[in-house]
Specification:
Layout: H1 8-11, E1 27-32, H2 36-40, H3 42-51, E2 59-64, H4 70-78, E3 83-88, E4 94-99, E5 102-107, H5 112-120, E6 126-129, H6 150-156, H7 165-179, E7 185-188, H8 195-210, H9 212-221, E8 227-230, H10 238-248, E9 256-258, E10 263-267, E11 283-285, H11 289-312, H12 318-322, H13 325-339, H14 351-362, H15 371-375, H16 378-396, H17 401-413, H18 431-438, H19 452-455, H20 462-478, H21 480-489
Helix pairs in contact: 5-7, 7-8, 8-9, 11-13, 11-16, 11-17, 13-14, 13-21, 16-17, 17-20, 20-21
The structure holds nicotinamide-adenine-dinucleotide.
Length: 490
């Protein structure tokens, strides 16, 4: 059966569907960047609350900011905002559920004014975002918002029709101010350390450049809570679509599949209230930072620690890498000896158990997360997740050779040719530049790390350079597997 409101009752005989009357749910949240993750995470938590009769005034309206989000618009329109979320247990069992918390979807490029008005609507109290790490337009080294990025620069010109998240959100806030409607809270749910602080910086910087008075108003009136989010959500494949039809009888053009694990640690800082997220299992805390650092430096950095070595060793699926004892040993050693020493105490978390759970989550063969997904957009990830670990370990005199080796594995991967001489498709905003630089690796072994916009002044640190170049040379001479064996034996 096609997934529509009309067919919900029939679908409900096989698969859990919303138990609440969706026509009675009113919007309270606008979300920018309705991808797999938002649909596996915040929208799922709200659906959980709504099934318990709570948060019925916190329905979500989705907004797609990029031209390619037209596809999501088509699907969401055809399916009345409904989609199937399938949790994949490692034992092969599935937990499907039809999620109903997203009420509708707007495509900003097609109708920017409708997107702005959706956010200006006084019923909206939160604008949340999952627009990827790169979506914040921050210079990796200076940490500053890049005002001359072409899209941003265009949005900053007088009378421009907004195209970027910054332009759209700022214009919505301007309209609210002018109409006497209080500001919504801006809640970033992206994988960025201090995501609330970063969101505050980018939105107020943009707004100030556009209109200093508005920037001051936003800075005074908009709350930007920080949060840590976690649930491994790979991109949806055709096999996933086929499985939803074959196993559950639902024709869903864009289901979401993910692991069973889910976590959200959220700072309680909302200007106009929030859904009772804690009733759905969210940890609402005063200080998110220790949890964020734990997640970024253990989970996310480990993803980078496994993806380039794994790809070069011939693996294409994450669980195959994590199930290989050589890799698991390397990852645990990185986490224990390098990642963990940089963390502050994390209240209520047993870090040893957390590290082991990560290896078992990565090993879930049902999720079929791809190594390629983890290699994507590395230039946004390595500088934010791994470089800080290296810098802090250097400063404190701790070990960092494994993290330095991960940087070398990225440099080797970015050469764009694998160990069999086959091309690697490097997918990165700055892929061209990365590949061009990495191709100098053999003649100029520090060319890659000389890029200060990615690595800051690490290339000036002799200890780091020694570790990095040694691993890079070993990758060229012996390949990824033998290099990893040496690293694990140290
Ligand atoms: P996705 O590719 O399914 O969706 C990404 C969404 O972001 C799309 O709607 C896209 O249009 C939008 N987007 C990208 N760049 C943008 C920009 N510059 N401006 C506005 N919108 C932009 O990806 P996803 O799996 O939903 O992941 C999105 C983000 O969620 C990640 O980058 C990460 O920060 C966070 N996250 C993901 C996972 C995961 O396992 N997938 C886990 C934790 C956190």
């Amino acid at each position: 059966l096609p997934l529509t409101t009309e067919n919900l009752a029939a679908i409900g005989a096989e698969v859990p569907v919303p138990s609440y009357d969706r026509s009675q749910v009113t919007p309270g949240i606008v979300h920018l960047g309705v991808g797999g993750f938002h649909r596996a995470h915040q929208a799922m938590y709200l659906d959980r609350l709504m099934n318990d009769g709570e948060a019925l005034d916190w329905g979500i309206r989705g907004i797609g900011v990029l031209p390619h989000d037209a596809r999501m618009k088509e699907v969401m329109d055809a399916q009345d905002g409904l989609y199937t979320l399938v949790l994949k247990d490692p034992d092969g069992s599935r937990e499907p559920r039809v999620i109903g918390s997203i009420l509708d979807f707007l495509h900003a490029p097609a109708d920017p004014d409708a997107a702005i008005e959706a956010m200006a609507d006084p019923r909206i109290r939160i604008v949340s975002l999952t627009v990827t790490e790169g979506g914040y337009n921050i210079d990796a080294v200076t940490g500053e918002f890049v005002l001359d990025e072409p899209g941003v620069a265009a949005d900053l010109t007088d009378g421009a029709v907004p195209r970027t998240s910054f332009g759209l959100v700022t214009e919505a806030l301007r309209r609210r101010r002018d109409r006497g409607v209080p500001a919504f809270t801006v809640m970033s749910c992206d994988n960025i350390q201090g995501n609330g602080h970063v969101a505050r910086k980018v939105f107020t910087t943009f707004a100030t450049a556009k209109d200093a008075e508005l920037g001051a108003w936003i800075s005074e009136n908009v709350r930007f809570p920080n949060c840590m989010v976690d649930r491994i959500t790979p991109g949806t494949t055709d096999d996933d679509r086929a499985e939803v039809t074959d196993r559950f009888g639902i024709e869903d053009a864009w289901p979401v599949v993910c692991e069973p694990f889910v976590q959200w640690v959220l700072e309680d800082d909302f200007g106009l209230g929030r859904p009772p997220y804690e009733d759905a299992g969210v940890q609402v805390v005063d200080d998110v930072e220790p949890y964020e650092l734990m997640k970024l430096r253990l989970l996310n950095a480990s993803h980078q620690a496994l993806c380039y070595f794994g790809y070069l060793a011939g693996y294409r699926l994450v669980h195959d890498v994590a199930q290989d004892p050589l890799f698991a040993t390397f990852l645990l050693a990185y986490m224990e000896r390098e990642g963990t020493p940089t963390l502050a105490p994390v209240p209520g978390i047993d870090l040893d158990a957390y590290r082991r759970e990560l290896i078992s989550r990565f090993s879930n063969g049902e999720v079929r997360d791809t190594v390629a997904r983890l290699c994507n957009e590395s230039s946004d990830r390595i500088p934010k997740w791994l470089i800080p670990v290296i810098k802090e370990q250097i400063a404190s005199g701790g070990e960092f050779f494994r993290a330095a080796a991960v940087v070398a594995s990225w440099a080797r991967y970015a050469e764009g040719v694998d160990e069999q001489g086959e091309p690697i498709e490097v997918s990165d905003r700055i892929a061209e530049r990365l590949v061009a630089t990495a191709q100098k690796n053999r003649t100029d072994p520090t060319a890659f790390i000389a890029d200060r916009s990615l690595f800051g002044d690490l290339a000036d640190d002799e200890g780091f350079v020694a570790e990095y170049t040694a691993t890079l040379a070993s990758l060229h001479a012996k390949g990824a597997r033998a290099t990893l064996e040496d690293l694990v034996a140290r």
